[in-house]
Amino acid sequence: MSDFKSKLRSAWASAWDQGDVDAFDSIMSPDYTLLNSNSGDAGTVDDLKRQVLQVRSAFPDLSTTIEQVIVEGNDYAIFWTTTGTFSAPLGDVPATEQRVHTRGSVHGHIRDGLIIREEVTWDLRDLLTDVGIPTIRSALEKSGESLTFDATGQPTIDTMKSFNQRFVTGVTVVTTTDERGRPLGLAVNAYASVSLDPPLVLVCVQKTSSTYPSLFRSTHLGISILGCDQRNVLDVFATKSDDKFTNLAWHSAPAGSPLIDGSAAGIEAEIKERFQAKTHTVFMAKVTHVEVSESEPMIYKGGQVFDSRTLTAL
């Protein structure tokens, strides 16, 4: 089996460290199956090749070390470690330039000197977790289903909209700066205070937002709670304008996050976690700066905004 071990190490080095994924063909059977014991997913050698190329695209300096190969009869196990820099997007997740050092194992079965089956406990979501970007693994996400149910008593999208429209919130503008220091922002009502001690907040941001890539890479974010007299500000941030700050009064918080002048309140917070949740990312952040004014906050309900002082529509 020393010949098998040598071929295995050589193919892994060629594929994972150099991107020559066809090197797998020399050690894998045409009937090869890749199983993920966490998700239950199964794939082919072509699926493995695509995964390797996807990871290498996001981590161009990827370096993998096989620490040990154990072979017993027709079964074997590989124990490996890898390092690299997250310097290009991985799917819809923007790069963060963070270094990753992760480890894992592969268990497989050999027939006629070729690998016919491998089982892993590691996948791309684990790689994101290792660079500080956990993924929310819901049953809906795992199955790949979307919310399109009906007459069986399950909620439709319209039903969910009706439910959400009964919930009253404030209106916030979440802000950051791009790589050139220009202010960016978007209107968000999916904001919540998580705890007072430590002072944690969260916001949910859709990945299609033009602000999203810069926000994802930022270390801090700003949150301005709009006041009743700021309907014009809300209208600006509800648009797709390239420069929403041109005619807007704002100032920088201590770490550089833009805060909107005249808001009911504003905070700056250090981003601690970025949870991937399908179409959105949940940003968990620790508050580092707070501003509160005498202005009363705007209220949002059912697609409309209201003056919190009189409860009249704005």
Automatic annotation (TrEMBL):
Annotated ranges, domain Flavin reductase like: 167-307
One Pfam family hit: SnoaL
Record flagged with keyword Oxidoreductase: yes
A GO molecular-function annotation: riboflavin reductase (NADPH) activity
Keywords: Oxidoreductase
TM annotation in the entry: none
A GO biological-process term: polyketide metabolic process
InterPro entries in the record: Cyclase_SnoaL-like (IPR009959), Flavin_Rdtase-like_dom (IPR002563), NADH-dep_flavin_reductase (IPR050268), NTF2-like_dom_sf (IPR032710), Split_barrel_FMN-bd (IPR012349)
Keyword presence, Coiled coil: no
Source taxon at top rank: Bacteria
Family (UniProt): Belongs to the non-flavoprotein flavin reductase family.
Record-given protein name: Flavin reductase
Species this chain originates from: Gordonia terrae
